[in-house]
User: Which sequence fits this backbone?
């Protein structure tokens, strides 16, 4: 597969995995890594795509009153209530859990709802998302485990 196509597919998968669609970017990253693609570009592209997808969630959270009742809204009212409570209790540092498969996306929406400043949001989410891909790539490469 062409490198540009592979990285574009990884970017799209990572982006959508952080937004509305139930997509697994980890499997794509591991598959490309096992196929022999260089580790650093894979981690960088997946991290950027996944972080930008989280920015979409933050923006949706900022406009939650307008979008809350739409069928495509990524977080149920109950989940949004739980994560908003969690976010109020733990604050911006809870964004370091935005990598988590369950609840991570809801945290990024809650950050928007509660008006977390964009730059602190972006830095913390980028650290969380990039850290997850680094650990996954290291495990796949046999550096960990």
Assistant:
């Amino acid at each position: 597969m062409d490198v540009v196509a592979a990285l574009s597919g990884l970017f799209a998968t990572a982006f959508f995995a952080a937004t509305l669609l139930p997509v697994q970017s980890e499997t794509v990253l591991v598959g490309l890594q096992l196929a022999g693609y260089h580790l650093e570009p894979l981690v960088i592209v997946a991290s950027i795509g996944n972080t930008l997808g989280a920015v979409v969630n933050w923006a949706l959270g900022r406009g939650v009153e307008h979008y809350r009742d739409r069928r495509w809204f990524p977080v149920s009212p109950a989940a949004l209530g739980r994560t908003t409570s969690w976010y109020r209790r733990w604050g911006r540092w809870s964004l370091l859990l935005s990598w988590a498969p369950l609840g991570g996306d809801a945290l990024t929406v809650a950050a928007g709802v509660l008006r977390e400043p964009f730059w602190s949001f972006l830095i913390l989410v980028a650290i969380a998302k990039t850290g997850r891909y680094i650990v996954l790539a290291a495990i796949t490469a046999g550096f960990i485990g």
Notes: The first helix runs from residue 3 to 17. The chain has seven helices and no strands. The chain has a mean pLDDT of 89.
